[in-house]
Amino acid sequence: MSNTIWSVDEHLDDILAAVRPLEPIELQLPDAQGCVLVEDVTVSVALPPFDNSSMDGYAVRVADVAGASEEFPAVLTVIGDVAAGSGELPTVGPGQAARIMTGAPLPPGAEAVVPVEWTDGGAGQGAATTMRPAGDAPEGASGEVRVHRPAEARAHVRARGSDVQVGDLALTAGTVLGPPQIGLLAAIGRGTVTVRPRPRVVVLSTGSELVQPGEELGRGQIYDSNSFALAAAARDAGAISYRVGAVTDDAAVLRDTIEDQLIRADLLVTTGGVSVGAYDVVKEALSSVGDEDEPGSGIDFRKLRMQPGKPQGFGSIGPDHTPLLALPGNPVSSYVSFELFVRPAIRTLMGLDDVHRPTARAVLKTDKALSSPADRRQFLRGTYDAQAGTVRPVGGSGSHLIAALAQADCLIVLPEDTTSAEPGSEVEVVLLG
């Protein structure tokens, strides 16, 4: 345990200098959601791959419908149907039309599509409103269609390659794959893609007083909320998270549990047991785990110039030097610590460029000045109004007030040199969106 007091920024820099992005792997599209692309993807098939109809209607030649009107419709012979997915296509000659469905390829000879609403639908009556099912001709209908309006060349035709052309850059390296990106990859025929995988984060809470939600509370016991909050926060940051419910205050048990978890962890997060009390089991279990052959390895427990969250631990553990962050046990301290230190580490493992939450400047709306300890960077919970550019504190400054945290959507940052923030003054806020 070093006696130096670290700043928030020094501690974060130390973490990010030690965390490396995960090695890229090839994944099937459904598994690549939320991952970061490590290659530029170019288009190998044009979209759409052929000229196709944007309407249900009739594929026609422009000359055959020139001058057509309700009074003097153009009468065309219907030579067949073209459905989406059609293979063999009829050729449309002079005086002819082919019934065509939306998305179906434009048949040879045709130059435009007239929507069914511009025709009698082949029923020999007035204007049609919908296409009849294939092969369903009304009583007395001929194999003819009356067209009531002219069409320009290429009307209602989606041109081949009008979305993307072969050789176009579809997605650049560094793109996070969300639903539209997954859809584009599928549309251009890519079944797999090379990405950095989602980091696997194991969250362990410690404390003999902790009980799992849903069980009966005994005397002096509380529910384990931290492991749930932090596992959810890790998932929210883009990780695959594994929650290990409360481990008792026994250093040997904790060390064994951590060693068991290393097999499935790219990052370990513990909560509780890091300050200077007699039962600070995490510190006791991990102070001596450095690798003999690795100078500087092991877990370093420190004090930070911040409130809440002064006690923190960071280092690496196990044969693969898996990074471990030891957070304090107070629910709000652990959550604030997660936002400041663990989330950027997860985003770094993912290979993202921007690992930080967005920040904004806001005018402080409060009845009385907020006090802040000298030489500590204080993080208070707040609600931010983007329209008005204002922020209001919620709850007090206690590190255990978890009810207020559930109301907050930002952290109000009071810097080390600020001991009082007056109503109406401008403050920095970290948006937890």
TrEMBL record:
Cofactor(s) it depends on: Mg(2+)
Stored Pfam families: MoCF_biosynth, MoeA_C, MoeA_N
Pathway named in the protein's UniProt entry: Cofactor biosynthesis; molybdopterin biosynthesis
Record EC number: 2.10.1.1
Stored CDD domains: MoeA
UniProt domain MoaB/Mog: residue ranges: 202-348
Catalytic activity: adenylyl-molybdopterin + molybdate = Mo-molybdopterin + AMP + H(+)
Keyword vocabulary terms for this entry: Magnesium, Metal-binding, Molybdenum, Molybdenum cofactor biosynthesis, Transferase
Region (Disordered): 123-142
Taxonomic superkingdom: Bacteria
Similarity comment text for this entry: Belongs to the MoeA family.
Function according to Swiss-Prot or TrEMBL: Catalyzes the insertion of molybdate into adenylated molybdopterin with the concomitant release of AMP.
Identification of the protein by name: Molybdopterin molybdenumtransferase
Gene name of this polypeptide: glp
